[in-house]
């Protein structure tokens, strides 16, 4: 939102929220009725192209979003080395509004301009006129309109909304108030409607021009330089006919330079070119991949988790995954396609996220495999450590801090807990510590009970009890199914010991989060949610790796080895991580 929002700032359908696509329903229903009554043969090229063109625009934009976020995670050729936060993601969530707006414009033009129905698929003369009109009137008028938008009156009421994003992403390009988009529509109508009225317009001429607008908009708002130097060496005049991401980035950081739309020659003509444009372009091309201090290795869980990745769909990834969006069923083909690509790509990990905590650099690497594809992972790294005893990096499974978080989640003064069907390292460690503290741990599965009893110090076995009748109100465990939950007394507190949340089937019970902590304010570039966790909350397993690196601890934490529980907890508090609940 602009600092002092003016008239027509909000989109007319903003009140509709996630149901805004219903404004296109009449057009879609009209198309369906026309096909049902008159057949596909009745559709002329212009009418048949409208809905597919809108869909292709959305796919085109999403490709740029994914490419940009992947490149930013690598930090290669980065222009502005600053972070993106949730505030920007929320502000840019409505990037598809302009596509809805264009869809309405297409249908109105079809209904009101008779020539549109007679458009051929292609006319070369019309395409040439479109190019000339863009280079002349459109670029010229946009340049001066853009300069006017930077006048205090218009800037505070409209354009400041766009400039709130200092670090731009491709979708930043279309984040403007509704009033601005109306003006842009009138500008871009000059090259599209003029050939139509002259009788030399074509369907592809309009579609390709809009694709050009989208391509240049997205490219210019990337925060990494991708235009190779050889292009300008091969054709020097191109410097005045095509801007670069670094060129437009200066407009977002300096505000009073580089006003041009896509062709910088008006900035050169009116002396508004930023003097550092060439220097920044050269500098950005030299930025190499970042070497992190820490790598968090993960993999996808379910098919839906694909578009919850940071490089996936921003509006989904910025919310907990247990808060599904209405259109998730429509993008199932994307999830299936990602699984196929994962098989083709192989098992090599790729970068999906880059975080920073003061001078400490972190990356997240994803293995392109899902839970149902993965095999048992070498006992939390133990087999890998045994295979490479001289490994210079340290492997951390995070079990020590996860155990600490579970223990701190159990209410103070608890005398009894029920351990349900758990064989995990964290569950066993939690039970052992509770027994050592004199808290009775009750189990009802004999095999698990005997296994855990054998690991307890001789003087503490008295606190481990096998019983099918003594059921307290504090339950811990990895997997507590529906049938087990029904046996819990009213008011039970369920404390998960695994990375996956419990299914909530009891309204009269309390379900705590999976082991996790709030991250410190000093951690930057956090604008996605970690699976089902709330914003700016990170799983204990992941935090443990950060602490390991920050503290310079030299041991591996894998297999049966575990870091000192109190030591890891103290380190977490020391570095600004905070508990979600108070035990």
UniProtKB/TrEMBL annotation:
Assigned keywords, A-Z: Endoplasmic reticulum, Lyase, Membrane, NADP, Transmembrane, Transmembrane helix
Record-annotated Very-long-chain aldehyde decarbonylase CER1-like C-terminal domain positions: 417-579
Segments passing through the bilayer: 46-67, 99-120, 126-145, 182-211, 329-352
Occurrences of domain Fatty acid hydroxylase (ranges): 132-272
Major subcellular location class: endoplasmic reticulum
InterPro entries attached to this UniProt entry: CER1-like_C, Fatty_acid_hydroxylase, Sterol_Desaturase_Related
Catalytic reactions on record: a long-chain fatty aldehyde + 2 NADPH + O2 + H(+) = a long-chain alkane + formate + 2 NADP(+) + H2O
Single Gene Ontology BP annotation: lipid biosynthetic process
MF GO annotations: aldehyde oxygenase (deformylating) activity; iron ion binding; oxidoreductase activity
Name used for this protein in its record: aldehyde oxygenase (deformylating)
Organism: Panicum miliaceum (Proso millet)
